[in-house]
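Researcher: We're teaching a course module on how sequence relates to structure. For the next exercise, students receive a sequence and then see the predicted structure as C-alpha cells, so they can try to spot secondary structure elements on their own. Here is the exercise chain.
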Amino acid sequence: MDNKIIIVSAPSGAGKTTIVNKIMEMNAFNLEFSISACTRTKRDTEKNGVNYYFISVAEFKEKIASDAFIEWEEVYTGRYYGTLKSEITRIWNKQHNIIFDVDVAGGISIKNLYPDKAISIFIMPPSVSELRNRLMNRSTDSEQEINMRVAKANKEIEMAKYFDYQIINDNLDIAVEKVSGLLTRFLKK
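Model: And here is the predicted structure for the students to work with:
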C-alpha cells in the first residue's frame, strides 16, 4: 500500500478540527489522526495522547535538540507545536493514511517534505470578523488571546496560496463534502 498524507490547515477558529473530525467519522479513507505535540495548557475537553501530546516547554526543546520532529514551530511566544517523527512511523506501520490537523506553517512544511504523497487543504473562514465571532463563541480564550489569534489569522490567510486547495467554511456540511470529494480523488491515484 502506498501510504498518503492529508494535511488540513487553517487559522484558529476556521473549523479545521471540526472538519477533520467529520472526515474521520466517515471511515472511508483508511485514515488515522496524527497527534501533534504542544506546550499549551490542556483544555477541559481534551485528553493527553488523544487530542495532543501535552508536554512542557523544556521537554519540547529537548525533542527539538534530539531531532525528534518532522516539523515544529513556536506558534505563539512560548507556545510550541510540532509533529513527532514517531507519529509518522506509528501510523504508516499500521498501513493507514495520515491526516494532519496542523497550523499553517506546519502544513506547508509537511507538504514540502512529502510533495508526492501529500494533499494540502487550507480551510478559509468566511471573513476575519466571522473568525473573531467563532473564537469568542467557543469561550476557550481570553480577549487578548483572541486578538492574538485574529492578528495571526490575517498572516495565515496570505499563506493559503501555498496549499493545493482552499475551501471556504461558510457552511460546515458543504465544506466537509468538498474535503471528502478531494480525498476520494487523491486517494485513488
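Model: If you want an answer key for the exercise: The chain has seven helices and nine strands. The mean pLDDT is 91.
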